[in-house]
């Protein structure tokens, strides 16, 4: 297996967004050819679809491998970091070794913020976060007058009541300012299949992303992997994109930590099932199928610390018009008039060195949220300051118990560096 990390990692770690000092620990997004923003353009090129707005992946070995592929299988494992997969290939992910040995492994970056709602929207539109406006888990939606959860499409404070925004006129299928990847592919004659956990096949985020795709739910690893095999071997000559999304590693990492036994056990179960299913494929179909394993973001361990809970800092809360929004690891501040400097002083003195505040307009203008003309609603959703968390710091502002032991959204290597494992199946 060509492991391209020795060539690509130094390039990623040296990459800097001009005019933006994020500190020595931050991994800047590589939007110019080595990020998940660049994958949609590559998929389109390989399947003969008109290109998206940004350049394709800058991995020549992958271009050569994709030549002549008619079926693309993309398996996206939520919260799988590059360094963990690289390490797990000699442990719980060892079932992938035969596939990896005839393919390639490369590190690429996520987007900012490194979180599911933002990253998946980028992958399904080919647009940067600045352009599509889905900038985190919780966002101030000025047009609806509410801080909304961008996964459930309900007010952020509401538990178990998905879709409440629809009563205010929010329509997931038309909420994005740009058309989706599946629509473009379908218009070009490509059949797009999306395999999702059954519980989210009609979620707001799924309805937003998969317009134009054939969506199919699954209930177990066996169900998923057999469905993958059926779609790969199904008769027909039309080019095809088969997309499978897995959320369990992210869920377990949040609850127990990304290096917990629960996560590694899940990794072994998943890749053992996948390897068994991909054995014995029809040779003709296998030869024309390119398999891609990647992730939307990684995850970092964040041990519980009550001092990182906003309810322990009422003075700071009183300085804000709204609670922070965005991600616990990269959040947006809306201070009361005249209280911005006081809020910044509080951050520095209460948590010395833990947070890096950036004027939101500066961060946006310097490309932290990607290239392209920002959507008109993007500045409002970023507040006045973007705050980047360092080391294992976070800010928890929800009015409920803080049960998370792993998080993402920030700029650490663990969160930003994701794998791209590619191989022809025959």
Could you characterize the architecture of this molecule?
With 426 residues, the chain is an alpha/beta fold. It has two domains: 5-301 and 413-424, Alkaline Phosphatase, subunit A, CATH 3.40.720.10; 306-407, Gyrase A, domain 2 (2-Layer Sandwich), CATH 3.30.1360. Helices cover 33% and strands 18% of the residues. It has helices at residues 5-14, 39-47, 60-66, 82-88, 97-101, 116-125, 129-132, 181-187, 204-209, 221-233, 248-256, 261-278, 283-287, 314-318, 340-350, 360-365, 378-382, 413-416; strands at 71-77, 104-109, 138-141, 146-149, 154-155, 191-197, 214-218, 240-246, 289-294, 300-301, 325-327, 330-333, 355-359, 385-389, 406-407, 417-424. It is globular and about 65 Å long.
Write the layout of secondary structure elements.
Blueprint: H1 5-14, H2 39-47, H3 60-66, E1 71-77, H4 82-88, H5 97-101, E2 104-109, H6 116-125, H7 129-132, E3 138-141, E4 146-149, E5 154-155, H8 181-187, E6 191-197, H9 204-209, E7 214-218, H10 221-233, E8 240-246, H11 248-256, H12 261-278, H13 283-287, E9 289-294, E10 300-301, H14 314-318, E11 325-327, E12 330-333, H15 340-350, E13 355-359, H16 360-365, H17 378-382, E14 385-389, E15 406-407, H18 413-416, E16 417-424
Parallel strand pairs: 1-8, 1-9, 6-7, 6-8
Antiparallel strand pairs: 2-16, 3-4, 4-5, 9-16, 10-15, 11-12, 12-14, 13-14
